[in-house]
Amino acid sequence: MSLTTTRRHLLSLGAALGLGCATIGTAFADTSSYPSKPIKITVPWAPGGATDVITRLLGQHIATELGQPVVVDNKPGAGGNIGTGAFVRERPDGYSLLMATSSTNAINPNLYKTLPFKPVKDFAPVAQVATVPNILVVPKDSPFKSVADIVQAAKNKPGTLSYGSAGNGSSQHLAGSMFIKATGVEVTHIPYRGSGPAAADLIAGHLDFMLDTGSMPHIKSGSLKALAVAAAQRLPGLPDVPTFEELGYKDFEAAAWYGIAAPAGTPAEIVEKLNTAINNALKDDNIKGRLQDFGAVVAGGSVQSFEDFFVSEIDRFAILVKESGATVE
C-alpha cells in the first residue's frame, strides 16, 4: 500500500471514529447556538513569531464574524509538539481550535519517531488560512546581487558559504536542502534555536544567506536584500523580486502554511460554520493587506480542500525530510 493510500485510509478511519465522537460531542455542543462563549486557538509556538502574529490577526476577525471573543493560547516547546499534543485532548465542541502549521502537522510526523498526537485522525481540518513562501535573503552589504552570484561563489569554493535555519528539519532547512538539490552546490547548514537568532546572525554578516519565511520586515527595513522567492508567482509585497521558476529553477516552491483545525469528532455543522467565518475574514481588505505585508499569500477554501491538502502535505514532506537528512532524535 502506498504512503498516500495509507494516509487516506487513516483519514477515512479517523472520520469513522470521529463520527462516534461527534455523537458524544453533540451532547455538550449545542450546534444551533454555537458559539455561545469564547473560542480558544492554541498556538504551539512562542508569542511574537509568524504563527502567533497570523493567529492573532485572524482571531480578531473571527471574533467579529461569530460575535464571541477569540483567545490565543501560546503553548511552545518541542518543535510545536507540546502545544499540539495538548490540543488534541481538548473537547471536540468547537471552542478549542489549533493553528496547524506545516512544521507541526506535516514536517514533524516525518521528523520525530514518536509524537503526542496522531497526524491525521486526531484532527478535523477546518480551513487553510495562508501560505508564506520562503525568500532567499542576504545581508544588505552582501557582495551577492543575485542567485547566480551565490551559485557561482559556492561552486568556486565548495562548502565555504553558509546558510542558517530555525533548526534541523525546519522549513528553512528543508528549503535550503531544495536549493542545494536544484543548484548542485555544496554549502554549509547552520541550525539555530529559532529563525529569529538565525536572521540576527544573517543581518550581522555571520551567515551568507537564508531561505526564510519571516524576513519581510527585515527586507522592508533594508537590513536584508531579497534575491528570489520560492513561490509560483511573485509576491505583491515584492513585485521586483523574481521567483526561482523565472530564474530557471523548475518546481522550486517552498512555503510554510497555516490553517485552523479542530479536534477530531467536532460536529460537522460547527466545522462548516467556522470555515465560513474564516473565509469571510480572509476576504476582508485589511486582513488581506496585513497578511501580504507579512509576505503571506491568502488561502481560504472549503473544508474538503484543506482536508485533502492536510493529508497530501504529510506525504510531500516525507520526501523532503528524507532528502535533507534531517534528524532530531
UniProtKB/TrEMBL annotation:
The keyword Signal applies. Residues 1-29 form the signal peptide. Keywords: Signal. This is Tripartite tricarboxylate transporter substrate binding protein. Belongs to the UPF0065 (bug) family. PROSITE patterns: PROKAR_LIPOPROTEIN (PS51257), TAT (PS51318). SUPFAM superfamilies: Periplasmic binding protein-like II. It comes from the Bacteria. Gene3D superfamilies: Bordetella uptake gene, domain 1, Periplasmic binding protein-like II.
